[in-house]
Amino acid sequence: MFTKILIANRGEIACRVIKTARKMGIATVAVYSDADRDAVHVEMADEAVHIGPSPAAQSYLVPEKIIAACKETGAQAVHPGYGFLSERAAFCETLEKEGIVFIGPKPKAIKAMGDKIESKKFANAAKVSTVPGWLGVIENADHAEQIAGEIGYPVMIKASAGGGGKGMRIAWNQSEVRDGFDRARSEAKSSFGDDRVFIEKFVVDPRHIEIQVLADAHGNALYLGERECSIQRRNQKVAEEAPSPFLDAKTRKAMGEQSVALARAVDYQSAGTVEFIVDKDKNFYFLEMNTRLQVEHPVTELVTGIDLVEQMIRVAAGEKLALKQSDIKLNGWAVESRLYAEDPHRNFLPSIGRLTRYRPPEEGQFGDVIIRNDTGVTEGSEISMFYDPMLAKLCTWAPTRIEAIDAMSEALDSFVVDGIEHNIPFLAALMQHPRWREGAISTGFIAEEYPDGFAPVVPNSEEKAVLTSIVTAVELLRRDRLDRLGGRLAPHSGALKRDWVVKLGDDYLQASILEGMISIPMEIDLSIDGGKALTVSSDWRPGDLIWRGTVGKRSVVAQIRPVANGLRIAWKGMSVTARAMLPRIAELERLMPEKVAPDTSKLLLCPMPGLVVSIAVTEGQEVKAGETLAVVEAMKMENVLRAERDLVVSKLNAKPGDSLAVDAVIMEFA
């Protein structure tokens, strides 16, 4: 067994590998760029080596720097994590020449399966069911249009060396093929250094289901069940679960056996994933094989009890698998939510900045529930534009699917992140969505359910009563605390007021205290808008960010943040500004004029912090609705900004190469 390994990666996956290596008694070496000098993985590792500037192309993607770090520290093996150099056969070959072990498959398997075009040719030859498509090299946009027409729309344009949703576009008609082809090639070139793309038929309403395989160098191979990865945005997975609520035992077995056969055919040696798209009739088609550890591997670990990173290390060290197929049992249900630094209210655009607060829920087993959080950041970490926007992978396990989802819902409600925008509100709303809870999902779920983008969930009458009760309880404690401050001329509140008005968003609700005293812990009976009594109990204290308690028979975990003249409550995807007032103050408050938002209809604002890739117009140019105005890149994704209406460009305020902040004015219109 190795005594020291180097992790050629960063962020949460580097931290994840370090945890297992530490458990196995193996010393670890971290590598870091300028942007990651103070990163968590650098602090966790036994040693750390600086490998260059912030851009990945000058640090994490330079094999020579990784090898130099191995030689400097005496690391015997390299774990690549995912992304970066994890599927570069040439990197593996170079490591072998230097006498350094690659903790992953052999170059042969990476070459056969790591290239999407070659992998499909290989799968076809091995009689694996594949999606109809064109596997040859596509020279230009004209050729792409011809091929798409022959296959039939819609089609998927994908980077051959791609991954993580990069270099991928769907074209629904001829007009979208050319632009999709150009954008996919551009993203592929910048992300992977390889601009080859291919085209295949896009299966409508598919599920994305993948099989985890594990194989050693002694001819042993097995599958560890499946993961449902259908909740995707821009082809990027957002939430995963294991097992899939859609598969039956027969289909699971068929997919698993086919995956193992494919792994054996390429002499696969390590953990790997065979991805399929599955239609409504449970027909499955080979999509690709990822010759590395998947981002979503924790849900498989939770339902099988097998540490995949440990197995990868043991296989790389030459050990035989200690498991047989008959040993693999799927126990309970696991759900994973990917926390991204992106603004769900602005079409999920990237967000960067410093984490002024980062307080995940407590990890461990709590009754029948397990909570796990794989992360690579901490409070104070800087989220930069150079890398993937993922902050953490929050996972829950429970005996049943609904219990795991409910545990995830509560864990998300108690996950505090401030300083940047993030997608926790969307994930919290997802856990309450009927289609998700029923398992009636597809890869088009987000586009179908949120066609106009995500907006906070609107509370129903029962939920309004819960929120109003919390606001009232918080206000009572706040006023009581003020009354107890020393040096005040007179009590602020006086005797306990029984009648209150709570402004919840734009609604005004009456809250009446029926029974109880102000104390910590608190237990009072409230009536909301004359309804039946609700007992509100909690040990919340002023200043706490999380309100935990019960309202009636309902257990509630909500986040509370002070805002001007009130507070903001986030709960189950709802986000409301609220204020508790005495009736007379509420009467006067209703008379206050509303602030009118400024007119920005004649400005093109940068929707997120990013780099201007190109400006497609000139001053004085007439532009039609739908035409491209500019392309802005952030966190390795190119975002095309188009005209929403016919207009004339009057002034350009930015040029290619400029780094812009969110809402910076790119151009003005007449």
Automatic annotation (TrEMBL):
Q: Does the keyword Magnesium apply?
A: yes
Which GO molecular function, any one, fits this protein according to its record? propionyl-CoA carboxylase activity
Enumerate the Pfam families for this protein. Biotin_carb_C, Biotin_carb_N, Biotin_lipoyl, CPSase_L_D2, PCC_BT
Enzyme superclass (EC): ligase
The biological pathway it contributes to is: Metabolic intermediate metabolism; propanoyl-CoA degradation; succinyl-CoA from propanoyl-CoA: step 1/3
* CDD domains xrefs: biotinyl_domain
Q: Which SMART domains match?
A: Biotin_carb_C
Which Gene3D superfamilies does the annotation name? 2.40.50.100, 3.30.700.30, ATP-grasp fold, B domain
Name of this protein: propionyl-CoA carboxylase
Q: What organism does the record attribute this protein to? A: Mesorhizobium jarvisii
